[in-house]
Amino acid sequence: MLTNEKKKQYDLEYAKKNLKRIPLDVQKEKYEQIKEAAQRVGTGVNTYIKESIDLRMATSLDLEGGRWFAKTFSKDVETLINYVDAHGYLFKDMLFADGSFTCDYISVDYVGNDGNIHEDNEYYLPECFANFSYDCFDFYVTENLNDYMGTFDPIKQSITINTEYLGVEHVILHEMIHLHEYVLERAGSQYREIYFYCLYKELEPQISDLDKRIEEYAHVSNTDEIMKIGGFHSILFLMKSFDLDLKMGYELGTVMGYDYK
C-alpha cells in the first residue's frame, strides 16, 4: 500500500498522463438546475455531466465513415441489407430529399453570380439528412429475438430481424420506419412537425376515413396496449405505415402490425 504522499504523487502523475480537463462554464442558475437533476437520480454533478455526454454520443448518428467497411456479413444479413438499401426510396420524404413532397419546405431561392434566380434545396438540410446512409447503422438477423419479429435499437443504431420473418417485407419496412423516425428526431422538432403536416396532406385525399383512424389509434387505451407489447409507436409512425401500405399495395394496417384494424 502506498503512503499518502506517494499516493498523491502517483495520482498527479496519472492525471497528467491519462486525463484531459474540459473547462465548462455555466450560469449559476443553470448549475443549480444540473445539480438538482443529478440529485434526482442519486449522483453528483460531475458524474451526471459525463453520463449525459455518453448518452448524447450514443444517440447521435455516426456519420464519419460507414460501419460496413471491411466487414463480412452472413447471407441472411446481406439479404436484409440489400432489401433495406433497395427500398430506401420509400423514405426519401423523411429525409426531405429532392423530388419528395417535403422538399419544398426547405427550398430557398437565391440570386446567383449570373444574376439569375436559382433554387437551393440544401441550405436548410440538416447534416443527418445530407449525410444519411444506411451504412451508418448495423443490421442483424437472429433466431434469438424472443417473441419479436424485428426490433430497432436507437442506442446501438441497429435493426434486428427474426430469422423466421426475414422474407416478410412489411416486418422490415416496420423497422425502417423506426430507423427513419429516429433520424428525423435527430434533425430537430421543426422538421418532425413539417413532416407530420406534409404526410397528413399527402394521405388525406387517399384515405377517406384518415381522421377517424387517427382518432381511434390515438386513444390512450390503444397506445398504452401497444406500448406494453412493442414500445412507443407515434401517430406519425401510424401515418407513415399507411403511406407504405398504399405504395406497396397492402391492406391498411399491414406495416403497422399489432393486429391493427
Plain-language structure description:
This protein is mainly α and 261 residues long. It has a domain at 75-93 and 137-248: Zincin-like, CATH 3.30.2010. The protein has helices at residues 4-18, 28-40, 45-58, 75-86, 127-130, 169-187, 189-203, 210-218, 220-230, 235-248; strands at 108-111, 117-120, 138-142, 150-153, 158-162. The strands form 2 sheets. It has a 3-stranded mixed sheet, with helices on one face. Strands 1-2 form a two-stranded antiparallel ribbon. Helix 2 packs across helix 3, helix 6 packs across helix 10 and helix 7 (189-203) packs across helix 10 (235-248). The longest helix is centred in the C-terminal third of the chain and has 19 residues, at 169-187. The radius of gyration is 24 Å and the shape is globular. The protein starts with a helix and ends in a 13-residue tail after the last helix. The model has no long low-confidence stretch (mean pLDDT 84).
